[in-house]
Amino acid sequence: MLNLDFHPFGRHFLQIPGPSPVPDRILRAMSLPTIDHRGPEFGHLGLKVLKGIKEVFQTVHPVIIYPASGTGAWEAALTNVLSAGDEVLMYETGHFAALWHKMASRLGIHARVIAMEGETDGIPNAWRHGVQADLIAKHLRGDTSHKIKAVCVVHNETSTGVTSDIKAVRQALDDLKHPALLMVDTISGLACAQYKHDEWGIDVSISGSQKGLMLPPGISFNAVSPKAIEASKKATLPKAFWAWDEIIEMNKTGYFPYTPNTHLLYALSEALDMLLDHKHGGLEAVFARHLRLAQGVRAAVNAWGLPIQCADQNVYSPVLTGVILPTGVDADTVRKTIYERFDCSLGTGLGKIKGRMFRIGHLGDTNDLTLMGTLAGVEMGLKLSGVKVQGGVQAAMDYFGEHPIPALKT
Ligand code: PLP
Q1: Is 71 touching ligand 1 by the criterion CB < 6 Å?
Q2: Which ligand 1 atom sits nearest the alpha carbon of residue 186?
Q3: Does ligand 1 come within 6 angstroms of the Cβ of 164?
Q4: Of the residues 250, 275, 300, which one is the last residue of a structural domain?
Q5: Is residue 5 included in any domain, yes or no?
């Protein structure tokens, strides 16, 4: 049961960077009856979503759908292509990159973790910047015997609001003719920020349902290149449920080797209709919308005079903005005030930055006025918490007012 003691009326503002709000249209699609997952109707549904999700990853190669959260898809990615004792290069951009590393270690993979050095005001510099491709190149250059089997990076680090330049990482691998696989977590980047699995030469992309795809949590994805499929034939880490081969085979007819999550696939089908709809500009319009909404939020944070967690404007995330609070102000107490007084959930600071910052999600089913309401709640909550800020709401209003959503090309 939801605890409605605080706020029995009005709509909750779910402004965490995922799970993101689920559009009514998707919720309605999920209310359809369960169907036989071996029957003819299911085959149509399966083929439709498997085709559509490839368009979202911008790939012509298979995308595997798991009835699991993103963590499951992380494990699937590692276990399909690696063997016990393999070395991988992992880049720490924040909490999720660190968790992926922890998982790799538990699986018996030797991960070399690299990160930007140093810290400022107790916040690691690595958690305020994107992946530095030259640092990756430096490590790969030293690996003349090609011991490193994969390079693992996070596209949009949800704990910090930093989006990394994946093309630059590919370039580093290509320049050195290093054969390692490129594995990318785009759990919160997909369907928010530009992402081209094939063109950027990614071998395994990992994503989840509860962010840009606007679905409830519960399904996740591996998009796989032919090189990754070849690697999976030789890799020896134990895999059964996660194994790509049987799933890819059965997916050819739209079915799955296990009982799939039919209702989340109904939801996915509806989400694909929304995201890929050419009348609304398709994926390019989705990316442009996120960039614009993010600018409006940053206008507010800048006017408040609070530092943005991402210290490099070139890699600001279109998905979320991390807001650093003055030393001595507990970000979770501020979040609690905003939740209790204004019915708005913001993302907590995770891991090394807990209590120092909070995160405003601006992804998925969101628009100017949803964000204006959110920013009003944040500004009021900051003032109630003793943080002297002003003008953020006005700055965002000015930004949104002066930057109308571009008209679609017809
Ligand atoms: N990677 C990133 C970048 C994430 O944002 C998340 C979750 O927010 C995960 C991995 C883990 O996914 P899940 O919580 O769906 O298991």
Answers
A1: yes
A2: 3
A3: no
A4: 275
A5: no
